[in-house]
Design goal:
By secondary structure, the protein is of the alpha/beta class. The chain contains 19 helices and 22 strands. It has a seven-stranded parallel beta sheet with strand order 12-11-10-13-14-15-16, sandwiched between helices. Strands 19-18-17-20-21-22 form a six-stranded parallel beta sheet.
Length: 575
């Protein structure tokens, strides 16, 4: 038996941000920052991590043992949080306890102490509530105090599956517990998300810790009054995760499966836009996501934020897809590249028969009968026009922001040949550029994760920089003066960022209609052969450059990510 107990609930199976508890935060795993703060409680309660005994959570169990934290591994239903916490409570039988959700690395020790002290002072109270006048402004979420008797009532009334997944949902808003009300310090009276459940939440929390430790001792605890002032002073800081939807305990959220391709032959474009759509879907609708990739497995930093499975053959992927229990499937494959199209069509037909919503991307406009909606990111759509096909520049999946390229900065040329450099530009293009570009130019060559390294000149005239697999192109686009790109996702990012560009056009790979849009709107230089001397015009304060810069600024592109999320939300009634 123990007098006071804090149970921290944590599993690595988060539907929106897998493995979140072990993500690094100021040099420590996120869960370690949670326990570090709780260890500062003056009441010195017993701290116990409550997780599940399945293989997926073994890394979390290993961390707890290495860090010296008490850990209780529940053997029952992995989705039954109430039973998991109750197993800990029954083992230690505390007089009073606090349940803490393990994804909040700003849990406040003084606030937690005050809850335990209040229960100690009021022996008849079975729980503690915050004064309703300020509760709506309370920064803390997922901190729930109970007496032992109060907790047993929570367990008794948690009957439905939703009740079992959420601590105290069964007694919320009722008269089941004898609950007393308290007021709290002003430091806790401001509203912002401080739980970490999405990529945006994690980015926000990283910023919190970086800002705090920039001017405070390494072992100090982030102060909530300081955070309150920082959020008030810097709207951009607040906006990092302000858009993230708080999931409701009263609602069962569905899951969406993405299917895409990525390989040394196909590049990275489809996987990149899949990741963008998945992140926005998680943050704005609360839906869980899983990504199935047909192709060559990669280990990229951006993939660690998602449930990703790789498949080397179409049959294995189709078999897996035919057994998914989800709300919707988003497919981004090119039908003309599939070896077994009939098997894909059979699976899609079966999914639709099971009332699973289907959304196709890009080239799947060729299979309109299988999808509830199809998004085609293109400058010029040449397929059949149907009510459920959405096509045009406004459906391009660009995430780039406009940059200022009105004047030359440092004579930098950015070169983007795609995630796989499928046309092997790296083997001959560097030497041609070195021969034909103006001396003093700096060439920044981006090597994709599937691409071979470029063959650089042995005695270069120009300055060369090689950057391998950057997480984002935005900083590179902001720093360059002009760019060369293959036609496709890379060019669309440059167009959205308004970077004056030259576009490489492999013979027969781009429709004449799309070429006409680029030419007629003067959006870029078109490079069809091996004459690259005209690119010098993009690196000079001349009419060629200014004409392209002005044309890009007047051309509307992008919005495909938001529109795709809106369509999925509409199909699933998740608005």
């Amino acid at each position: 038996m123990t007098t006071e107990l804090i149970v921290v609930g944590a599993r690595l199976n988060s539907s929106r941000l897998p493995q979140k508890h072990l993500l690094p935060l100021a040099g420590r795993p996120l869960i370690e920052q949670v326990f570090k703060r709780l260890q500062a409680c003056k009441s010195k309660p017993l701290l116990v991590l409550a997780t599940t005994a399945d293989d997926y959570n073994q890394p979390l169990i290993s961390w707890a043992r290495e860090f010296g934290v008490e850990v209780f591994t529940y053997q029952g239903d992995v989705n039954d949080l109430v039973a998991r916490v109750d197993a800990v409570v029954e083992h230690y039988q505390p007089k009073r306890m606090v349940y803490v959700c393990g994804d909040c690395p700003l849990v406040d020790p003084d606030f937690t102490d005050s809850l335990l002290q209040t229960l100690s002072a009021h022996k008849d109270w079975e729980g503690v509530a915050i004064d309703p006048a300020i509760h709506h402004r309370l920064i803390h979420e997922g901190i729930l105090p109970f007496s032992y008797a109060g907790w047993k009532k929570v367990v008794q009334h948690s009957i439905t599956p939703l009740h079992r997944e959420h601590v105290a949902l069964a007694v919320a808003g009722g008269d089941i517990l004898n609950v007393g009300s308290i007021t709290v310090d002003e430091r806790y009276c401001f509203k912002h998300r401080i739980s970490v459940d999405t990529v945006a939440d994690y980015q926000f929390m990283n910023q919190v810790y970086q800002r705090w430790y920039a001017s405070n001792p390494v072992d100090s605890l982030v102060d909530l009054l300081w955070l309150k002032a920082e959020l008030a002073a810097d709207p951009s800081f607040k906006n990092i995760n302000q858009h993230v939807m708080q999931k409701s305990g009263y609602k069962k959220y569905g899951k969406v499966v993405f299917v895409c391709e990525a390989s040394s032959q196909k590049g990275l474009g489809q996987l990149t836009r899949t990741l963008s759509i998945a992140q926005r879907l998680q943050e704005e609708t609360g839906l869980g996501t899983e990504i199935l990739v047909l192709g060559d497995k990669l280990d990229l930093p951006s993939l660690r934020f998602n449930h990703v499975s790789w498949f080397s053959c179409e049959s294995a992927l189709c078999e897996h897809l035919s057994n998914v229990d989800v709300s919707a499937v988003i497919v981004d494959v090119f039908p003309q590249r599939l070896i077994q199209p009939q098997q894909w069509q059979h699976v899609l037909t079966a999914l639709k028969a099971n009332n699973i919503k289907l959304l196709g991307l890009d080239q799947l406009y060729q299979w309109p009968q299988y999808f509830d909606a199809i998004m085609v990111p293109t400058l010029a759509y040449g397929g059949e026009k149907l009510p459920h096909i959405y096509a045009g520049p406004e459906y391009i999946f660009s995430q780039s922001s406009p940059t200022n390229h009105a004047t030359i900065k440092s004579n930098n040329l950015l070169v983007l040949t795609g995630g796989s450099d499928a046309f092997h530009y790296g083997q001959f293009l560097p030497c041609l550029l070195d021969e034909q570009l103006t001396a003093g130019t700096t060439v920044v060559w981006v090597q994709g994760p599937y691409a071979q390294g470029p063959k650089l000149p042995e005695q270069p005239r120009l300055r060369w920089q090689l950057i391998q697999s950057p997480d984002t192109l935005q900083p590179l686009m902001e720093q360059c003066d002009a760019a060369i790109s293959v036609y496709g996702a890379s060019f669309f990012e440059l167009l959205a960022a308004q970077v004056p560009s030259a576009v490489l056009l492999p013979e027969g790979m781009v429709s004449q209609a799309e070429i006409d849009v680029v030419v007629n709107n003067k959006l870029a230089l078109l490079i069809k052969r091996q004459d690259f001397s005209q690119i010098n015009g993009l690196l000079l304060e001349g009419s060629v450059r200014q004409e392209i810069v002005a044309a890009m600024a007047d051309f509307t592109i992008g919005g495909g990510v938001k529109r795709t999320v809106d369509i999925i939300a509409g199909l699933l009634d998740q608005h």
